[in-house]
Write a structure and sequence with these properties.
Blueprint: H1 9-18, E1 23-29, E2 35-41, H2 42-47, E3 51-54, H3 71-76, E4 83-88, E5 94-95, E6 103-111, H4 122-135, E7 138-152, H5 180-184, H6 187-200, E8 204-209, E9 215-220, H7 225-245, E10 248-251, E11 265-273, H8 290-302, H9 307-310, E12 332-334, E13 341-343, E14 353-355, H10 364-381, H11 404-413, H12 415-421, H13 423-440, H14 446-452
Parallel strand pairs: 1-6, 12-13
Antiparallel strand pairs: 1-2, 3-4, 4-6, 5-6, 7-9, 7-10, 7-11, 8-9, 11-14, 13-14
Helix pairs in contact: 4-10, 6-7, 7-10, 8-10, 10-12, 11-13
């Protein structure tokens, strides 16, 4: 569900007046998932519906640079640095609970001057995939599970991260998976997080301590993919703000600490028939429908080519390592957490598959778009999955790209994903990731200085 279900512009204005909002943060999620935009006074927001920001805001690397010498990028993004027109989505209006003065925040969609959605904007890419489902009479349902680390403040990027100090005055030195007491070490922080999320209507469900020291997981209630992507986008921002208030950092890096497990965004997904309201993954007799296997077949066939989207940074591939609580291949199994695609035990209406490959560092709009795109292609092409894996998949061969250059090569070469996600999106996205990798390669790591400086 959306944050404000069925809200119109009129509803939004009444709500802003009721809350006595004095300023509004007008947000656009960029390709990294960072919130871009403008902050407007309340009166200006009413007058300036359809505000503008440069199109290139959606074409930046995580370091703020532009791949201006890439042919595909140059064809997609205007060299004249033209504007996009931003229009607020009233269903996303919510308060900024950490602000001193009454402040609201609202997500905007990006449009060209002729009224078309900017096709390489993350929300537009997800809308494009959802339209394919709508045309088939299907409605996808998702439930993200988002892992993250709490760390002590670290102002020197050359120093390793450390777990934060809890209320006991000590930092974790061992793994405390599912420990209630370990979560309670940070009670003041999590009380703020739950209060913030309630104020913002984010519908978070359970909180658990994950495997790593200082690693937590928050689960979201299942619902509409666009609404859930908005909530994950808001949650990341909210968690970082709450952590800073308590003198610590929160990070969604895929692998922030050496020797600790990485962080994922596991996504449970099913598909409902719009007319009947039934889960199409289940047959009338309660067994798994053939189309369920086709969906899994699509994930297996196309997810390796989509890896650059769900593992978007050089750091992302440090997580995809054997025996580190992350999948290394595209196998599937029943209630098997070692595979890439897990089928949980469930009832007939709840039959679903969990994509465990996606990293916590992925843009939520793009991650949901691409996993649904893979499943869609599997259903429409009637792809068959491999035999089910009943043992540990960690002992099987690696089937996923092991680095960003390999992943980008696969992404650029997969015409089916290009047709579903859009040519211009693939061109812009791949160009940005190429440049990010080039920037990374200019940095010399501590490992290189330690082992190569005097030994080679």
């Amino acid at each position: 569900m959306a944050i404000r279900e069925n809200f119109t512009y009129t509803d939004m204005d009444l709500w802003l007046n009721e809350k006595r909002v004095t300023e509004i943060e007008c947000l656009v999620p960029d390709l990294t998932g960072v919130a871009r935009g403008k902050i407007l006074p309340r009166g200006k927001f009413t007058q300036e519906r359809g505000m503008r920001i440069p199109e290139a805001v959606l074409g930046m690397t995580v370091t703020g640079n532009y791949p201006t010498e890439d042919g595909g990028y140059d064809r997609a993004i205007s060299a004249t640095d033209r504007d996009m027109i931003l229009k607020a989505d009233p269903t996303t209006i919510t308060m900024v609970p950490w602000a001193t003065d009454p402040t609201a925040q609202v997500i905007h969609d990006c449009y060209f001057s002729d009224g078309r959605l900017v096709d390489f904007a993350p929300r537009s890419v997800l809308r494009r995939v959802l339209k394919l489902y709508e045309d088939k009479g299907w409605k996808p349902v998702v439930a993200p599970e988002l892992e993250f680390y709490l760390t002590a403040k670290n102002t020197d990027p050359d120093l390793p991260l450390k777990p934060p100090i809890g209320r006991s005055g000590r930092a974790e030195t061992s793994r405390q998976v599912y420990s209630i007491d370990a979560v309670n070490e940070f009670d003041p922080l999590f009380e703020d997080i739950y209060d913030y999320c309630e104020t913002m209507n984010l519908d978070v469900d359970t909180l658990i301590h994950e495997i790593g020291a200082g690693q937590m997981e928050i689960n979201f209630l299942h619902g509409d993919p666009l609404g859930l992507a908005d909530k994950v986008f808001f949650f990341k921002r909210t968690l970082r703000e709450a952590a800073l208030k308590h003198d610590m950092y929160a990070t969604f890096m895929a692998k922030p600490m050496a020797g600790e497990p990485g962080s994922a965004m596991h996504v449970h997904q099913s598909v409902v028939d719009v007319k009947t309201g039934k889960n199409i993954f289940s047959s009338d007799d309660g067994s798994a429908a053939p189309i369920f296997k086709h969906y899994i077949g699509g994930l297996q066939r196309y997810m390796p080519s989509a890896m650059a989207i769900v593992a978007p940074y050089v750091n992302s591939y440090r997580r995809i390592v054997r025996h580190t609580a992350a999948p290394i291949n595209i196998q599937w199994g029943m209630d098997n957490r070692t595979v890439g695609f897990r089928v949980p035990e469930s009832g007939v209406q709840d039959r679903r598959v969990e994509n465990r490959i996606i990293g916590a560092d992925a843009n939520p709009y793009l991650a949901l778009a691409v996993t649904l795109a893979c499943g869609y292609l599997g259903m429409t092409e009637q792809l068959e999955p491999t035999p089910i894996t009943v043992a540990s998949a960690y002992d099987l061969k690696v089937e996923l790209p092991q680095g960003l250059p390999e992943a980008l090569q696969l992404l650029r070469g997969e015409d089916k994903l290009r047709s579903v996600l859009g040519d211009r999106f693939i061109d812009v996205y791949a160009a940005i990731k190429d440049l990010e990798h080039q920037e990374f390669m200019t940095v010399i790591s501590p490992w290189e200085r330690e082992h190569l400086l005097l030994h080679v």
